[in-house]
Write a structure and sequence with these properties.
Blueprint (H helix, E strand, L loop, with lengths): L5 E6 L5 H13 L3 E6 L9 H8 L19 H8 L2 E7 L1 H8 L6 H8 L3 E6 L3 H4 L2 H12 L3 E2 L3 E4 L5 E5 L3 H16 L5 E6 L4 E4 L2 E3 L6 H12 L3 E6 L11 E4 L3 H12 L4 E4 L6 E3 L21 E3 L3 H8 L5 E8 L3 H11 L4 E6 L11 E2 L2 E4 L2 E4 L3 E2 H20 L9
Helix pairs in contact: 1-2, 1-8, 3-5, 4-7, 9-13
This protein binds cytidine-5'-triphosphate.
Cytidine-5'-triphosphate (CTP) binds next to helix 11 and strand 16.
């Protein structure tokens, strides 16, 4: 799995820097091509000569010409583009804080912030430093950037204290990398269509009906699908989010526009995920001019509404058997029963059930607590970041795809 993979090991100032030597050796033994970048603090613990000898490549120590880098001032970009992945192990509290805040003031952090490949961070520090609130906050910021945190173990620490903070063992880090590269192949050649965000149904040129959807869950799914090698089309309603790179984004506003875009792309899609919070009703007509207060009745104003098209249901009706169809169900009550009903009604393979009224879940936030509902059962997941939820959803999709390819039918709804 690691054969010919280009991996940068970033080493920062920690007594655990010696474990990075073993990590480098393990990666090399599995056929990876390894380069090393060290902070100055790391060189207090292990010499760069050790790493240069092992990796047979100069170690990136300084941002400025020191005779190590053959190319110009943009050598860090060459490194960042070269790597399939980078793993900072051990990652000190200080490097984690820099990364979370975009501070790039040494060779290691300039490479890490310019990296196109996957970034892994394996923290190592004393137990009290590990429990310091800023460190926790910085780790969760990095997670929200899509960085994979490899958690430290618990045990004897160099200080003599006992607790959480020991760098994960080199073989555990290798397993994380292997799992990532296995995942990154899982959707190669597949076309994934995702709907995300809210829709807006105009009342007049300045007013609309919409909902609180931020689009974060759908964007996290798009990024995860991209990282697994899929060709991704993201049909997105209006959101404040940055467009994910490497994803084909089709921006829409209304439910009708979203339905048309989905119709264009759904035939060619292998996997269709409807995470959008589509408005269920739209004004029968949108006024051409801004509506005036005086047009309102004395006590109330009624806006006639018509139902929008149920996009997912339409896809369910026309889907091919080999396509995988995933819907969401955001509910304030009867979560699982409603999700099971939607699974059947919309002819889905999987419904991601999402409680709307629970802390840490639902619209806008970074986390979600979802239950995956399938014909053959349900699986409740703990509170996870939306990106972690996306990983779990694609793992479930992988399993469903395997079941399908083995000809086992879990869906008998027609
Ligand atoms: N959906 C859709 N088009 C709509 C409404 C919903 O494609 N017009 C999709 C959503 O993207 C989601 C699923 O259907 O994947 C369920 O959406 P939800 O709003 O939970 O349920 P509804 O079908 O709208 O039913 P209800 O409002 O009665 O719960």
């Amino acid at each position: 799995m690691l054969e010919s993979k280009k991996i940068i090991v970033g080493v920062t100032g920690s007594i655990a820097a010696y474990k990075a030597v073993y990590l480098t050796r393990e990666l090399l033994q599995r056929g990876a091509i390894v380069r090393i970048s060290m902070t100055e603090a790391a060189t207090q613990f292990v010499t760069s000569l050790t790493f240069a000898s092992l990796s047979k490549h100069p170690v990136a120590l300084s941002m400025y010409p020191d005779g190590t880098h053959e190319s110009s001032g943009s050598w860090h970009i060459d490194w960042a583009l070269w790597a399939d992945a980078m793993v900072i192990a051990p990652a000190s509290a200080s490097t984690i804080a820099k990364m979370a805040n975009g501070i790039s003031d040494n060779a290691l952090t300039v490479i890490a912030t310019a990296l196109r490949g996957k970034l892994f961070v394996a923290p190592a520090m004393d137990v009290d430093m590990y429990n310091y609130p800023a460190l926790k906050r910085n780790l969760s910021t990095l997670r929200s950037f899509g960085v994979e945190i490899i958690p430290p173990g618990t045990g004897d620490l160099a200080s003599g204290l006992v607790g959480e903070g020991r760098l994960a063992e080199p073989d555990e880090i290798v397993e994380e990398l292997k799992a990532y590269f296995a995942r990154s192949l899982s959707l190669r050649g597949k076309h994934v269509l995702i709907t995300a965000g809210p829709t807006r149904e105009p009342i007049d040129p300045v007013r609309y009906i919409s909902n609180h959807s931020s689009g974060k869950m759908g964007y996290a799914l798009a990024e995860e699908a991209r990282d697994r090698g899929a060709h991704v089309t993201l049909v997105s309603g209006p959101t404040a989010l940055e467009l994910p790179s490497g994803v084909h984004v089709v921006s829409v506003v209304t439910a009708e526009e979203m339905a048309s875009a989905v119709e264009v792309y759904c035939q060619g899609a292998d996997i269709i995920i409807a995470s959008a919070a589509v408005a269920d009703f739209a004004p029968v007509a949108s006024a051409e001019q801004k509506m005036k207060r005086r047009q309102m009745g004395a006590d109330e104003m009624l806006i006639p509404l018509k139902p929008t098209q149920d996009i997912l249901k339409a896809v369910g009706r026309s889907r091919r058997d080999e396509q995988l169809l995933v819907g969401f169900a955001l509910e304030t009550d009867n979560l699982i029963e409603s999700a099971q009903a939607k699974l059947i009604e919309k002819k889905c393979d999987l419904i991601v059930a999402n409680p709307a009224a629970e802390e840490g879940t639902g619209f806008g936030g970074e986390t979600n607590r979802v239950t995956l509902v399938q014909a053959d059962g349900k699986r409740e997941l703990p509170l996870l970041t939306k990106r972690e939820c996306a990983v779990e959803i694609f793992e479930a999709i992988d399993r469903l795809a395997q079941t399908k390819s083995q000809g086992v039918k879990t869906r008998h709804i027609n």
